[in-house]
Amino acid sequence: MGEGAAAGFCPPRLFPEPSSMNVSVLQSAIVSEPSVEEVGLYEIRKKIYPRAVHGAFARWRWGLVFLTQSIFYLLPWLSWNGRQAVLFDLGARKFYIFGWVFWPQDVIYLAVLLIVAALSLFLFTAVAGRLWCGYACPQTVYTELFLWVERKIEGDRGARIRLDASPMSLEKFVIKALKHISWFIIALWTGYSFVGYFTPIGDLGIRGMTWQLGPWESFWILFYGFATYGNAGFLREQVCKYMCPYARFQSVMFDKDTLVITYDKSRGEPRGSRSRTVNPRERGLGDCVDCSICVQVCPTGIDIRQGLQYECIGCAACIDGCNQVMERMSYPRGLIRYTTENALAERLDQQAMWRRTLRPRTLIYASVLLAIGGVAAGSLAMRNPLKVDVIRDRGALAREATPGIVENVYRLQLMNTDEKPRRYTVSASGLAGLRVVGLEQPLALGAAATRLLPLRLQAPVEGAPGTHKIEFVIQAVDDDKVIRHEPSSFIIPR
Predict the structure, then answer these.
(1) Smallest Cα–Cα separation from 471: which of 436, 420, 424, 423?
(2) What are 118-129's pLDDT values in tens digits?
(3) What is d(CA 268, CA 288) in angstroms, rounded to the nearest whole number?
(4) Is residue 72 part of a domain?
(5) What own/partner pairs with CB < 8 Å and gap ≥ 24 does 228-234 have?
(6) pLDDT at position 212 over 80
(7) Structural domain that includes position 481
(8) What's the rounded Cα separation, in Å, for the pair 337 and 214?
(9) Where would you tag: which of 88, 121, 227, 412 has the fewest CB atoms within 10 A of its CB?
(10) pLDDT cut 90: percent of the chain above it
(11) Residue 401 within any structural domain of the chain
């Protein structure tokens, strides 16, 4: 490299030598070079202090908080037929849900449940956006619960901001400690209730108070409690914005007739502050008074006036907050409201907007959902509580028991999924003279119990040699409808 290149100058073919350059041109070229701006790859989180809000949607949200948490916390304590009403006993491989007992063979019902949940999510999202996120998602529910505790102890938005900005003192330490202790108690009780669905909750509580919990029970109580404490107390909107995948793919479920929370720009702009006595039209203003209440009440800290954003969880707190301001200003409600893109563009009334919700997408979702739900409900209603599995004994093939009599050995597994004990009779058909031997009948089987027993079938040698199709018939003594027909085979040696 030459001295000019080593000194940082450009090659002569691009610029003349500095000695012959016009100094003013050089200076202007240097001045006109664009400045370099450093952009961080990670945004520093700014703590959000949601303001308390009251209104119709807030009541709906709190109603669902009360409903979901009442079910979650109280359901494990309900009894049914002398046992816990809802218990997922992984050790015994039995799921008890009131009068139903599900076994590993019933995994199809779990698949149906997941399909119904997915279709419901698609349907609700296509109709009215992120209803699940705004009203029933556990992250939203527990964040609301933890925020309520925070407001009760630290005060509303302004008081919390001042408290966090103030230096540490004894009063601040006591307030913060009281809040975190309250959060910890709720989180720990949540973890305990969660594990109570898998271990009888009464026994779990007794062993917990006597420090006799097993390692896995202790782990899951602390893990679930810590997750609740961290997500609802600290991460909050970060879970919705960065960790939840639903926020990323929700847009593919929306269309121009999906109800979403929207700011009416044609009515609100240009925004500006004014007194209640001022006529906004005379000053060329819209209805938005630029009070930023919609931003202050938002749990994710967004400004809905900038349009639909993936961070919006559809909680409708901004609607309640804006409606309160509109009422104080004596303006019509609904500057921020649930509406659709087509309704805004075409100025549709409420009836026309709601009629468009019955469009092909929602009708298909609803039809498939009803069909699957109906089939699943019918299957559960007609569910046979008796399950049977017949296996040929590989260690004992066909043999001649007595002269002229052939015997085959089987293993019969009976499963009574009912909540009451039953007695069963076992018979077989398909060959002349085929009969069950060496089995005391009727067979007694306890409630939600299984029984594996050997079974011998005998038939005269009159049949043709080879494999013959037969059928086992297992029937309950006290109920003719509880019956199973299980195919098998009977071998007559040559």
Answers:
(1) 436
(2) 999 999 999 999
(3) 5
(4) no
(5) 228/142, 228/186, 228/187, 228/190, 228/191, 229/183, 229/184, 229/187, 231/139, 231/142, 231/143, 232/139, 232/142, 232/143, 232/145, 232/146, 232/183, 232/187, 233/146, 233/180, 233/183, 233/187
(6) yes
(7) 386-492
(8) 51
(9) 88
(10) 60
(11) yes
C-beta atoms surrounding 155 within 10 Å = 15
Average pLDDT over residues 3-13: 41
pLDDT at 135: 94
Question: The tokens of 442 are what?
Answer: 């009727």
Please, what is the Cα angle at 447 between 217 and 477, to 5 degrees? Answer: 165
Instruction: For residue 324, name the pLDDT band (cuts at 50, 70, 90).
Output: very high
Report the range of poorest mean pLDDT among 179-183, 286-290, 393-397, 468-472: 393-397
Residue 399 belongs to a domain: yes
Among the residue ranges 29-33, 129-133, 181-185, 327-331, the one predicted with the least confidence is 29-33
Pairing verdict, β 422-429 and 443-445: antiparallel
Q: What is the pLDDT of residue 484?
A: 93
Q: Where are the beta strands (DSSP E) in 264-394?
A: 336-339, 386-392
Q: State the residue for tokens 């202007």.
A: 28
Confidence (pLDDT) at 13: 42
Query: Do 262 and 322 touch, CB atoms closer than 8 A?
Result: no
| CATH number of the domain that residue 478 is part of | 2.60.40.10
Digit-coded pLDDT (tens) for 396-408: 778 888 888 899 9
Domain presence at residue 425: yes
Backbone torsions φ then ψ of 323, nearest 5 degrees: -60, -35
Task: Could you list the beta-strand ranges (E) of 163-319.
Answer: 260-263
Question: How far, in Å, CA of 85 to CA of 97, rounded?
Answer: 6
What pairs with residue 468 in β-bridges? Answer: 490
Retrieve residue 359's tokens. Answer: 């469009």
Number of structural domains found in the chain: 1
**Burial of 482: CB neighbours in 10 Å, binned 0-12, 13-18, 19+:** middle
Strand ranges (E), 165-246: none
